[in-house]
Amino acid sequence: MHTNCILVTGAAGYIGSHTCIELLEAGYHIISLDNLSNSHSIALQKVQEITGKTFPIIEGDIRDKELLDQLFNNYKIDAVMHFAGLKAVGESVENPLIYYDNNVKGTIELLQAMQRHHVKKLVFSSSATVYGIPKEVPIDETHPLNAINPYGQTKLIIERMLQDIAQADTESRIALLRYFNPIGAHESGKIGENPSGTPNNLMPYITQVAVGKRQELSIFGDDYETVDGTGIRDYIHVVDLAKGHVKALEYLSDYKGIEAFNLGTGKGHTVLELIQTFEKVTGKKIPYKITNRRPGDSAICYANTTKAQQTLHWKAQFNIDKMCQDSWHFQTNNPNGYE
Ligand code: NAD
Ligand code: WQD
């Protein structure tokens, strides 16, 4: 391929697949790389179906040095969007080494390959988890960083590594995108969040209860200091999030250095508000019980999004009604996921 293209790692995953659509629709050429450890190649076929565009689909691991060299030799890669990583907090507590190996070592391999092939532009999937338990809300990018579990540590270590790289190489162009709570799905209902096993996150759990795969939802605590006692989060539509990546890429074409950006809506909603909205827009009842708080959860977490608005000229457009609608549309179209 002689055209400049974007290497998308973790492209078959939830956020990666939605971002591939936005990149293709914005006219970028992409190469997708995924080891399919937490995803299905069908997601990438759907991306091609939705956009009417084709692209190379590479099944492989970011820790595979030879494969990376091959890709950087065979394609003219202008930038890397790096989604590949493991993301289950509980699993990272039980088996931290898998997380350090996959996320940290994997990113080091990728960065070394980028260095060997003189690729300077990177958009990295970070997370609001790097703020730890928030000291104050809304959280802006200057909030102190503190990881409270091994998954969060991997994100923080990678962020710090990238800061050092940007210091050492002034030609670097790096965006650290700190996502809040992505939910929703592409409005076609063809791609969406497709967790294997029991969902760790709230929205996929809700949709699986609604579709009859699980009996009831457990709400982790109703004694927080919030309007109804349940935890508050900044839920953001995954398509808004995906568009934020395209904006970040555009920004990096004129910017040298490294910047972190919060990608959220700036609005917080409680667990009960999300359930009520889901019930309202879908007409489905979500049975739930109140259980103990989940260890490591904070009461309230939402973003100050001023920096992304002013610098990236990006702002989330969709509200939680639309997020619930689209999550449900995907779940009903794919009651058993992609399989
Ligand atoms: P996902 O699991 O759906 O996608 C990650 C993809 O990376 C999967 O397709 C997986 O197969 C692939 N992958 C994992 N390790 C790999 C490796 N070594 N080599 C090649 N491919 C590999 O998760 P997602 O929700 O799309 O998250 C994407 C990124 O965003 C992750 O880095 C995650 O930590 C980060 N993030 C996610 C959330 C969220 O709530 N979903 C929030 C903040 C940050
Ligand atoms: C949301 C709210 C729960 C499930 C996690 C990661 C974070 C980031 C996003 C990757 C909380 C409550 C949940 C359930 C519930 N991921 N809840 N019953 O914990 O804010 O963030 O995903 O970077 O790092 O920690 O998201 O969806 O798990 O929880 O009551 O079955 O829903 O207590 O208030 P969280 P979540």
Describe this entry's structure for a reader:
The protein contains eleven helices and 14 strands. The chain is an alpha/beta fold and 339 residues long. The chain has a domain at 5-184 and 235-264: Rossmann fold (3-Layer(aba) Sandwich). It has a seven-stranded parallel sheet with strand order 3-2-1-4-5-6-11, sandwiched between helices. It has a three-stranded mixed sheet with strand order 12-9-14. UDP-4-deoxy-4-formamido-beta-L-arabinopyranose (WQD) is lined by residues 87, 89, 127, 129, 181, 200-202, 205, 217-220, 231, 233, 271, 294, 297.
Secondary structure layout plus pairing:
Blueprint: E1 4-9, H1 14-25, E2 29-34, H2 42-51, E3 57-59, H3 65-74, E4 76-82, H4 89-94, H5 96-116, E5 121-127, H6 150-168, E6 173-179, E7 181-183, H7 202-210, E8 217-220, E9 232-233, E10 235-237, H8 238-252, E11 257-263, E12 269-270, H9 271-282, E13 288-291, E14 300-301, H10 306-312, H11 320-333
Parallel strand pairs: 1-2, 1-4, 2-3, 4-5, 5-6, 6-11, 7-10, 8-13, 9-14
Antiparallel strand pairs: 9-12
Helix pairs in contact: 1-2, 1-8, 3-5, 5-6, 7-11, 9-11
